[in-house]
UniProtKB/TrEMBL annotation:
Positions bearing the site annotation: Transition state stabilizer: N152
Keywords from the UniProt entry: DNA damage, DNA repair, Hydrolase, Magnesium, Manganese, Metal-binding
Protein name from the UniProt record: exodeoxyribonuclease III
Family: Belongs to the DNA repair enzymes AP/ExoA family.
GO terms, molecular function: DNA binding; double-stranded DNA 3'-5' DNA exonuclease activity; endonuclease activity; metal ion binding
EC number: 3.1.11.2
Active-site annotation: Y109, D150, H251
The organism's place on the tree of life at top rank: Eukaryota
Record site feature (Interaction with DNA substrate), residues: H251
Site entry (Important for catalytic activity), positions: D221
Any Gene Ontology biological process: DNA repair
Cofactor note: Probably binds two magnesium or manganese ions per subunit.
Cofactor(s) listed in the protein's UniProt record: Mg(2+); Mn(2+)
Length: 260
């Protein structure tokens, strides 16, 4: 079995102890992180190396940042600017050797978009268009591929606490939902929804307004699997325990288990 997790950690240096405990306690083999919020020089390599994990890091000063941690050898590391005119650390891709197989993983942090009438929302849609092209290219390789992370979009009504209230707002706007749906229509599969067809569970809750206590959240962190990976999916689950810790990230991990 191969256990893979994605988590918007919202500052890896603030939550390095939570991260290490999660990796060890949950026996995670590969971790895809977003919003590490540090440069590559500032990354806490010593703590990761102590666990015996390899790493690929694409950092940025104080914001964004993505990385891959792996118990197994990382054969390739690709730092990619999905929108070439925007040099932001939002996507990193690795090929990992597990037993006699290779697994391609990508950690993605889609822009939030701020508001539907903003330039940043247009940038978000452009990011999705370019991500669609990248993921479509990957499908042609017919590899076991997992592109996971904070997509900043809840796909369906079941993925938000109040669809009427949130409809038309950022992260649940029809334009961005269509972009994510287009990626699924390419052939990628939503691992959580395969495992839990009708379960309402969230991955993000606002820090304010008792959102966690009232379960007013959204499922905006996704594990998207190529057909080759989906065929080997054992299960996928959301681990909301980390959101309930003291000083948590506003996101919680999503974990999938792949049969090898």
């Amino acid at each position: 079995m191969l256990k893979i997790a994605t988590w918007n950690v919202n500052s890896i240096r603030k939550r390095i102890n939570q991260l290490c405990s999660f990796i060890v306690d949950s026996q995670i083999d590969i971790v895809l992180l977003q919003e590490i919020k540090c440069t590559e020089e500032q990354f806490p390599y010593a703590e990761i190396e102590k666990l015996g994990y390899e790493y690929a890091v694409y950092g940025q000063v104080a914001r964004n940042g993505v990385c891959v941690l792996s118990k197994y050898p990382i054969l390739e590391k690709l730092k990619i600017d999905i929108v070439e005119s925007h040099q932001e650390a939002r996507y990193i891709e690795c090929v990992i050797k597990h037993s006699n197989n290779k697994v391609r993983v990508g950690s993605v942090y889609v822009p939030n978009g701020q508001s539907p009438d903003s330039h940043t929302f247009e940038y978000k849609l452009k990011f999705f268009d370019n991500l669609y092209e990248r993921m479509g290219t990957l499908l042609k390789n017919e590899e076991l591929t997992i592109i996971a992370g904070d997509y900043n979009v809840a796909l369906d009504e079941i993925d938000v606490f109040d669809s009427n209230l949130l409809n038309g707002q950022v992260c649940f706007h029809i334009k961005e939902r269509e972009k994510l749906r287009a990626i699924l229509n390419l052939g990628f599969k939503d691992a959580f929804r395969i495992s839990h067809l009708n379960l309402q569970q969230f991955t993000w809750w606002h820090y304010q307004g008792n959102s966690l206590r009232n379960n007013q959240g959204m499922r905006i962190d996704h594990m998207l699997l190529s057909p080759q990976a989906a065929d080997k999916l054992e299960t996928c689950y959301i681990d909301d325990r980390l959101r309930k810790l003291e000083n948590p990230s506003d996101h919680t991990p999503v974990v999938c288990v792949i049969k090898q």
